[in-house]
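[09:14] KT: can someone run the structure on this one? pasting the chain below
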Amino acid sequence: MLARATVPSTPREDAAALEQVLVDTKVGLEDLRRASERTERELATERAALADAERRGGLAAGIQDTETMRVAEEFVAKHRTRVEVLERKAAVQRDEVMIAEQEASELMTRFRELKQGRTAEGRSPSVEAAWRGLEAAGGARPETDIEADILRAKADRAAMEQAADAQLAHLKKKLGKA
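[09:31] RB: done, structure tokens below
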């Protein structure tokens, strides 16, 4: 009841609201990109530290310095774990950026449609007004006409039953039971 009394917003009003959402989305996307780049830099630094620790361990093994080898192995383990964690983090951040870019693209497409005066269904306001007029006169839109769907389903069922009866009659006749 209340929905009928509420005046729907125009595509241009929807565009103005969507524009703010789009701005917020773009700001968030830039934040995600910066965080991803920061993680990639941390990963590069940690990989270099891992390579250094491995090199130092190799040098210590070459001179048979067991204490330095033990310390180097601890550092290698620490840096390897950190590299693995940062690799997973970077992968997740890349996925987040990809999803945010896709959402921003979809919002931009929707925004352009609204700026052109199109509704969410892609119709112009004049087409919407024509449908509202038809509905007010008792008509129904094809996508919301439940009675037509029910009638179509009944007709389909009757046609299937008629075809089944015809096949049964043909088989009876063929077998000589009719």
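[09:33] KT: thanks! Residues 11-62 form the longest helix (52 residues).
[09:34] RB: yep, looked fine to me
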